[in-house]
Specification:
The chain is α/β, with parallel strands linked by helices. It has two domains: 123 residues, no CATH class; 302 residues, Aldolase class I (TIM Barrel, Alpha-Beta Barrel). Helix content is 29%, strand content 21%. It is built from twelve helices and 24 strands. It is globular, with a radius of gyration of 22 Å. It binds iron/sulfur cluster.
Length: 436
Amino acid sequence: MELVYCDQQGQVFNHPSYPPVFREGRNFCTLRKNDKLIKMPFGSFLFSLPGRTPIIVDRGRQNYRPLTHVDRKAALAASAFVSSGYLRTYLPAYHKSNPEAPTLSLWGYSGVAYHRQEFYVPAIRIDDDPRSDPAIHENDALLAKKVKKLTALFPQNRLVRQLAYCSTEYRCLCARNFFLNRYEAPIPTAPDCNSRCLGCLSHQDQEQSGFAASQHRLSFKPTPEEIAEVILYHFEHTTTHVYPVKSGGPIASFGQGCEGEPLTRAKDLARAIRLIRNKSDRGTINLNTNGSLPLMVKEMIDAGLDSIRISMNSITPDYYNRYYRPQAYHYSDVLKSIELALNANIFVSLNLFFLPGFTDCEAEVLSLFNFLEAFPISMIQTRNLNIDPDFYLDRIEFKHSPAIGTITLLQKLRSHFPSLRLGQYNPCKESLSKYS
Ligand code: SF4
């Protein structure tokens, strides 16, 4: 395997003299004995990292050092962004050679290597469900036809117009699936949020953070009737036998990247759920949330919510609070929501943001295992944290703790908690019974 680097114009090169170097937390490293590189999955991207030079090491040695120039031209570090369904296991290794270098924008930066004319990445396929595989989203013409049909069918429905915008302007794969009558439909409903996450995709104070939000925050509040209309259409028109495999039933999920916190609209969402369940018991109604308002979680469960996914960057309260910056709620409220959902016997997932070297450091692993002993949730959705690793570790004031490796962490989770599901996507209720 060979090192990958870029020139100042962003052109990508391999360097046959040096092996690839990676990073866990703040530490440079090479691959652990049992860890593997895989061919870069279809739909992944490559980035050059501004103001950052690649790190090199002589084969078989630990003398890590920056590679500032190649053939007298300045070299930049390279990184990959792996496509959905894959969990990255190492970060790219680089040295911030320019102290003025900009904070990196919101992507999940992964290491990258080169071998026999192919790019390789330190990642594993963690969920086989194809719903967000870029390969099944190469259909803009079909999508345009479907968007035209549905916006004509629901001319008054602002949510349909929002999803039309998301599926075309943002290429949101979930919104595309709504128009293509398959898998999981995103149901954004909340302009407001009671967190101020460092890595929020829909709201950033760029002066403070140094990078922009990836998408505009929703600016209106769909009514329960607009919400129910979209979800009922999705549940009634979604086919379960779509390319390439049987997908199970349709899913509709509150809590998307383009909105705030859905629990801030729980009373309206509960009303929407009742409108839907009065007409149909088909499909899975799921809530992606920060879990901040337990009483509102109860309101939605009582209305008929099928499953809940609660997002956290860490189980450690200090790291959680420094990332989420809660407004008028506490870390303990999130635990109350999880407990409440478990007691209501609905399917509970933890959407855990993974950063190699942090999530798998000994201190975090201990916190996570204690949490899983106390809260027997059904699934961990292993989410690549999309953020500049240095910015993140600085802002949460990460105290070094040795990394055990992402692959080792997954192996330990599987052996200690055999009924715990690991993946990246919300399951449909048809598949839930297997897990309760
Ligand atoms: S909970 Fe979601 S919407 Fe709210 S700040 Fe965090 S990422 Fe943004």
